[in-house]
Amino acid sequence: VQLIESGGGLVQNGGSLRLSCAASGLEINAFNMGWFRQLPGKEREFVAQITFGARSTNYSDSVKGRFTISRDDTENTVFLQMNSLKPEDAAVYYCNAEGPFLSTASEYWGQGTQVTVSS
After folding, report:
1. Three-state secondary-structure class, residue 98
2. pLDDT tier at 111 (50, 70, 90 boundaries)?
3. Residue 88: which H helix or E strand, with range?
4. Sign of CA pseudo-dihedral 66, 16, 26, 55
5. Which residues are paired to 78 by β-bridges?
6. Which pLDDT tens digit goes with each residue over 34-62?
7. Predicted confidence (pLDDT) at residue 119 exceeds the cutoff of 90
8. Alpha carbon 1 to chain centroid, angstroms
9. Residues 34 and 108 sit within 8 Å (Cβ to Cβ)
């Protein structure tokens, strides 16, 4: 199983980025998909999740209203649209898959993609 993130990079304060997470060896339609982020020396923190079947989405308070998580199960890919980026959003962003369905028996992580926001 591989989760491969892409789309990170350097953006100015107030700018936008769209992260993608492409899965291989895993059919994401059975999994809750999420994004987490981590700064050096800090705990990995939850950013957003979209449940299997896209029935619901959840966001951390710090990104609510600015970030949007979506999924395309036909492409086996999940996205994170990040708007109005702030310097405090800079981190390594990780894709997460948990499931299948309501189970938490399996969990997978990507290798991460760096997001840098210049002030």
Report:
1. strand
2. very high
3. none
4. positive
5. 21, 71
6. 999 999 899 999 999 999 998 999 999 99
7. no
8. 17
9. no
Split at pLDDT 50, 70, 90, the class of 107 is very high
Tokens matching residue 78: 């999940």
Q: Under 8 Å CB-to-CB from 41, ≥6 apart: which residues?
A: none
Q: What pLDDT score was predicted for residue 40?
A: 87
DSSP state letters, 16-57: -EEEEEEEESS-GGGSEEEEEEE-TTS--EEEEEE-GGG--E
State which amino acid sits at residue 91: A
- 3-state SS class at 93: strand
Q: Sheet containing 67-72: which strands, arranged edge to edge?
A: 2-6, 17-24, 77-82, 67-72
Rg (CA), the chain: 13
Q: What are the backbone angles phi and psi of residue 83, rounded to the nearest 5°?
A: -115, 165
At 45 the pLDDT is 98
